[in-house]
């Protein structure tokens, strides 16, 4: 924080609540220069403020610099890098301005001073209250956040569908003769023997069967490309219920799994006509092996609350006309009670006894979701998804404040580095740690760039309070920018240190051949008359003292340039600012 003698004479220096409250009691127009600790008050405005005070204001214009971090009334401005000017009279805020536009500031002070001296009416706000321009900024920010969330959600869906298509393609390729049947809650394990009767004629074999609880997320995966998905109201009735599922192998010569299993489902759900025999003179209709389940679901009418409100208004009008007779009042009240009783109705939901997808991809999705153990031979486990992330950039001089966060939040901030600018197309890499950057010549335009995971923690709000120069609009753009700043070849200081201390396995010593083709070691052993055991022991001791093959070090001991990320053009080149030499 800069505290010049001239500033203190012209402007009161306020850093506590007590000082702030006392200053607000002054008369005239109060102009508050609100600043954060790291950037200090706006010294560039001092000359203009002095001129206005001497020429126009005098005792009617009071100036102060206020440290937001230590004054509770100004907490919302703490750690913001944008200069803030608040105009106060009679203890109430009447205007606010952001930025360093000198002509604009002078114009506002002049206008506010004249209206204050003329005792004109001002729209007043509490010091802690958001003013209209702040509300507008907040709405713009919230709108941008909603747009970012929408874009991120669409990108997440796209990636998910892309992944599901990939894994189901793999399953269809490796298990072309496999299909799944899903039985309703009215079917249980004890019925399986009966369920197997139609399977033999169709030459299908149940290779696995299990009972699974149904969850919304699982069926979202199953139905991602289904041609005949279960109705949504049916699925809602299946949540948290356990369903029997069978893993069938079919004879491809007879048809595809969906077609064969749909024939199987038809055999289970059709009525069978038994012809007359010696015991029955007429045909007998035999019920299906499994039947649908009918459920009555209570539904609430849309708009019932509005209807009830209208009825209440009607009742009030009737009560105001009591002089028309009690009979009319009672007649008006009866429909109200009856209609409120009818604001809810019932809906019949029919749950099928068996569901067979009509497309092979949905069968593959069922295998992926419920029979994953059958795919271990060819389908690798799902990779851990990378959390959505954005890029945040700060002026390099804030490294001291950010260093503590970078150390304590390594999971939330997996990568960071110092660059010559925050433009990923032109930025030149400088250093991958605060320690290495401190050894370089400081340039005011340098930036520290952070890759920040968008997780539900305090990381983002805390970082935002430090006044970033740039924040990715959403995680989709953030991912693209992070790939440019931190390509696959980029290594953090921790990764470099881990590689440096990694133990390399010793390579076996190569045996040289003599001119006759025999091992030199054997020749030496024969020449000196050593026993085989003694020779092996001596060879082992020699191998321990032999340097590793291929090991090399630089005379300077500096980091290898391979740890530098490539530039934006994709070449593995970097510019060392200390020497000005570009290396490829």
Automatic annotation (TrEMBL):
Residues 516-527 have a biased composition (Basic and acidic residues). Residues 503-584 are annotated as: Disordered. InterPro entries: DUF4746, Thioredoxin-like_sf, Thioredoxin_CS, Thioredoxin_domain, TXND_domain-containing. PROSITE patterns: THIOREDOXIN_1. Gene3D superfamilies: Glutaredoxin. Residues 15-109 form the Thioredoxin domain. Residues 569-584 have a biased composition (Polar residues). Residues 530-540 have a biased composition (Acidic residues). It holds the Pfam family Thioredoxin. Residues 233-499 form the DUF4746 domain. This is Blast:Thioredoxin domain-containing protein 3 homolog. The lineage of its organism: Eukaryota, Metazoa, Ecdysozoa, Arthropoda, Hexapoda.
């Amino acid at each position: 924080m800069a505290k010049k003698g001239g500033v203190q004479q012209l402007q009161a220096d306020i850093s506590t609540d007590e000082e702030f409250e006392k200053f607000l009691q002054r008369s005239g127009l109060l102009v508050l220069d609100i600043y954060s600790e790291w950037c200090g008050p706006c010294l560039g405005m001092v000359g203009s403020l002095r001129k206005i005070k001497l020429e126009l204001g005098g005792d009617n214009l009071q100036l102060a610099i206020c440290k937001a971090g230590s004054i509770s009334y100004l907490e919302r401005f703490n750690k913001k890098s944008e200069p803030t000017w608040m105009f106060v009279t009679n203890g109430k805020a009447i205007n606010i301005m952001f930025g360093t536009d000198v002509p604009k500031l002078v114009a506002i002070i002049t206008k506010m001073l004249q209206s204050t001296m003329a005792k004109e009416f001002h729209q007043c706000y509490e010091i802690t209250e958001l003013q209209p321009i702040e509300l507008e900024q907040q709405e713009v920010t919230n709108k941008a956040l909603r747009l970012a969330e929408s874009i991120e959600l669409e990108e997440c869906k796209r990636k998910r569908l892309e992944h599901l298509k990939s894994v189901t393609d793999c399953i269809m390729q490796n298990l072309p003769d496999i299909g799944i049947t899903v039985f309703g809650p009215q079917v249980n394990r004890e019925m399986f023997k009966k369920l197997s009767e139609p399977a033999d004629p169709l030459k299908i074999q149940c290779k696995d069967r299990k009972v699974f609880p149904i969850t919304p997320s699982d069926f979202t995966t199953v139905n991602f490309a289904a041609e005949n998905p279960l109705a949504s109201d049916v699925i809602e009735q299946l949540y948290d219920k356990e369903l029997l599922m069978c893993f069938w192998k079919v004879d491809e010569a007879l048809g595809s799994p969906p077609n064969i299993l749909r024939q199987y489902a038809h055999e289970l759900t059709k009525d069978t006509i038994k012809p007359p025999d010696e015991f029955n003179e007429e045909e007998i209709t035999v019920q299906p092996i499994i039947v649908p389940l009918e459920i009555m679901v209570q539904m609430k009418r849309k708009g019932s609350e509005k209807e009830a409100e209208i009825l209440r208004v009607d009742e009030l009008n009737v009560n105001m006309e009591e002089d028309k007779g009690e009979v009319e009042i009672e007649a008006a009240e009866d429909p109200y009670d009856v209609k409120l009783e009818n604001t809810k109705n019932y809906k019949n939901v029919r749950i099928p006894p068996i569901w067979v997808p009509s497309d092979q991809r949905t069968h593959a999705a069922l295998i992926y979701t419920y029979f994953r153990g059958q795919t271990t031979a060819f389908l690798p486990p799902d990779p851990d998804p990378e959390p959505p992330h954005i890029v945040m950039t700060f002026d390099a001089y804030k490294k001291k404040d950010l260093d503590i966060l970078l150390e304590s939040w390594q999971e939330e901030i997996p990568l960071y580095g110092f660059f010559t600018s925050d433009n990923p197309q032109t930025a030149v890499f400088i250093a991958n740690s605060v320690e290495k950057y401190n050894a370089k010549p400081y340039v005011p335009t340098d930036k520290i760039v952070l890759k920040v995971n968008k997780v539900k923690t305090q990381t983002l709000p805390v970082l935002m309070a430090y006044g970033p120069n740039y924040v990715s609009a959403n995680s989709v753009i953030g991912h693209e920018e992070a790939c440019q700043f931190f390509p696959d070849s980029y290594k953090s200081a921790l990764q470099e240190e881990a590689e440096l201390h990694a133990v390399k396995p010793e390579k076996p010593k190569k045996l040289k051949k003599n001119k006759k083709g025999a091992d030199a070691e054997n020749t030496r052993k024969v020449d000196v008359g050593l026993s085989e055991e003694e020779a092996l022991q001596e060879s082992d001791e020699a191998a321990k003292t032999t340097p590793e093959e291929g090991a090399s070090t630089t005379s300077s001991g500096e980091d290898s340039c391979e740890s530098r990320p490539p530039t934006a053009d994709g070449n593995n080149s970097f510019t060392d600012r200390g020497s000005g030499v570009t290396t490829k």
